[in-house]
Amino acid sequence: MPIKHILALATFAFASTVTSVAFAHAKLQSSDPQAGSTLGDAPKQVRLKFNEALEPAFSKIKVMGPQNNEIPVTATTVDKADPTVMTAPLPPLSSGEYHIQWSTMTHDGHKAKGEVTFKVK
C-alpha cells in the first residue's frame, strides 16, 4: 500500500477519535437505588454517578410515584468533592414503582437526560 494511503488512513482514524471524544455526552454509570431493583425498605435519597463532571445549575432530579404523581424532591445537589455525582433527598416512600427522571448539562455544554425505575415492596 502506498505511503500516502497509509497516511490518509491514519489521519482519518485520528480525526474520527477526536470527533467522538469532542461530542461525548454525560452517561449514567450507576444509580442508588439501582435501576430495576426491588427494595424492602424505601431509600432516603437518590444518588446518580456519571462518567463526567456535571454543571450544578443545570442538573435536576425529579421523582414520579406509583400513580404517576410527582414526589417532592427538595434539592438536587452536585457533589463538590466529586462533580460526577448528583444526589437528592427523598421523603418517606410507600410501596410501589418509582421513576427517577434526571437531566443535566456537562461543563462542555452538552445536555443529557434519562430515567431509572425501581420498586419499593
UniProtKB/TrEMBL annotation:
Residues 1-24 form the signal peptide. Residues 25-120 form the CopC domain. The keyword Cytoplasm does not apply. It holds the Pfam family CopC. The keyword Metal-binding applies. It is found in: Periplasm. Keywords: Copper, Metal-binding, Periplasm, Signal. InterPro entries: CopC-like (IPR047685), CopC/D (IPR032694), CopC_dom (IPR007348), Cu-Rt/internalin_Ig-like (IPR014755), Ig_E-set (IPR014756). Belongs to the CopC family. This is Copper homeostasis periplasmic binding protein CopC. The gene is copC.
